[in-house]
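Handout, section B. The chain below has 217 residues.
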Amino acid sequence: MADESSKKGSLTKMHFEAFTDATFMHRISEKPTEFQVDVNPDSFTRNIALKEMKTKERGQTNSNGQDAGMEAETYTFKLIFDGTGVIDGVKRDLNKELNDFLHVVYCYSNKEKKTNCVIMTYCGEQFLCKIRSLNVQYTLFNRDSSPLRMIVDCSFFSVEKEKERKPKPKIKPKKPDVTIDIPVDSCVCPPPGYELVMKKDQDAFSEYPGSSLSSNM
């Protein structure tokens, strides 16, 4: 997917955006959330493979030729990080450059035990992926041993985009039904001269006003 810069004739550079999960809807909270390389890789390898369903019958080791689905795609390439200023006239702090790059494409979360999900834009496409491995080779140094040039060997694998799960609505607990059906023929009737009143959900007999009957019958 070409951007505006490519339409104007300028060079489109490899770009990475970091997200918290495979919905690719929530960017990581701490900056930087994206990274653009200074030098594009001179090659980019995209590997696509099928899973083969293998039989497990005794004495049979060959595949039965049936497909079991798609393997995750893999993307491999090498990036050059240059701090000498020879390439574009800009001298850079390569330790900071590498840390920013790792924060976007790696940034392992101790809380959730997972790496970032990344949208990698290159070759006119967007790849939804995660980092598999990264190897840093330091090739040039300052007199104080700080790096002036690095070759970063990267490997990513594809991930499938997930739908965002909506939180389940909270269900209020239902109040218990205390209604009791009492058959008419089992109704307790008060003795003559008394009426049935309710006191704190309990049946009790009470004298009619002015009655001469005693409750101690």
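Note. The chain has a mean pLDDT of 81. Compare this with the example in section A.
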